[in-house]
Amino acid sequence: MPWLSNQIPLIKMRIKRIRYIAPNLFSGISIVMMWIAAMFSLLSETANKVGLYIALPIAFLLSTLANKGFRMNVYEKILYLLFVWDCIAYLWADNKELASLELHALLGAYLLSYVVSIQGRKLSNAPYLYFVWVLLYISAWNYAAHHILVFMTDNSDRLNDENLNANTLAYYTFYFSFLCYVLSEIVEHKTLRFLWTIAFWVMFPMSFGVALLTASRQVLIIQLPLYAMLIYIRFIKGVSVKSKVLFCIIVLICLIAASGQVEKAYNDSFLKQRAEINITEDTRFGLIENAIEVGVDHFPLGIGSANFQGVSDRREIAHNSYLEAFADLGLIGMLLYTSLMLVFTIRQWRRYRQSGDKMYFAFFTFGLLYALDGFFFVFYNAIWLISFFMLVAAHSEAYYEQQTKKTVSLTTNEEITE
């Protein structure tokens, strides 16, 4: 018995150590599970199922165990309300098959959004979480190289198939470009910061290449303002006039040098042919009209979860997050998604105006362009698209919390000194 009494303090100490290590261990495994899901997403149908039905649920479970309390940021509250309302809209959906597929998609979107929101509360996790979408982008290009590019024989072909939509690659390009900028700002190792800065610049001309291969106009619609705004805040604002002039001269020389090849490539591309189509002849214009009609005819509740696709003239989704929500989920659904975009974007702008911190400007830029991108596709039920928004949202809140603590600590120290 004396031996047992001597062991009790040691056992208690080990239990405390396990309690301290466990959350970090759970977080680490959760992030690795998301890496696996991203890598497996386009590897094969079986691998994708492993990622979605095994890796993600494990990440969800471990994130729940690591989660302290049930607090949620405002973006989680709005998005989860939208998910719940989408589930409720199943009740009045006539086409239960489409509605069931929607609920299935929402489950995946919820799982991944939940995991990145929980793990994103810890600022040190941010680089590892962004790396999920690095792997996703690599996976997308690996799939394209082996299943699409090898079959493209002339400029009239488009990088597009049923597993990797051309526009999806456009969204991934947007996300990858943005995360390159963010990682070049937040990683501590100088070499890695330099490499991510290089990657950010490389993605600028690569974006034009993606636009040509996918014949996707929205690549340029999003990437050009993205780079204009991020380059401004990083390399132009706040620097000396001499540096500004030098930077502008270098950029101008590069643009002039590349203009000939860019013009030739564009003139020979399918992208130019699509750009010359009158907007009223674009299939999306018809879908927009359809979605408005359906939303008005079924006002205010909408036609039901994912049921717009079943009644639209082309039997397609609206390719517009706001109008898809309006048609399927009614006024409440559209207001919830719109408020999610507005709350995030306005909050980042206000924080930037108050502090002058360029990270908030970067978050604002992302929010503004993500909201704009929503006019070209439906994001709220797409697992990899809406969860990236939630990752940036979680990162912005964790960053704000850290900066607020620094400000309070600095103020307290100054008061003590006085």
Beginning-to-end CA distance, first to last residue: 58 Å
Overall spatial form:
globular
Helix content: over 70%
Q: What profile does the largest beta sheet have?
A: none
- Portion of residues in beta strands equals under 5%
SS summary, helix count: 15
What is the number of strand segments? 0
Describe this structure in words.
It is a single chain. The chain is built from 15 helices and no strands. It has helices at about 1-40, 45-65, 75-90, 95-120, 125-145, 165-185, 190-215, 215-235, 240-265, 270-275, 285-295, 310, 320-355, 360-375, 385-415. Helix 14 packs antiparallel against helix 15 (about 385-415). The longest helix is centred in the first third of the chain and has 39 residues, at about 1-40. The radius of gyration is 24 Å and the shape is globular. The model has no long low-confidence stretch (mean pLDDT about 90).
Question: What brief labels describe this structure?
Answer:
single chain, 418 residues, mainly alpha, 15 helices, 78% helix
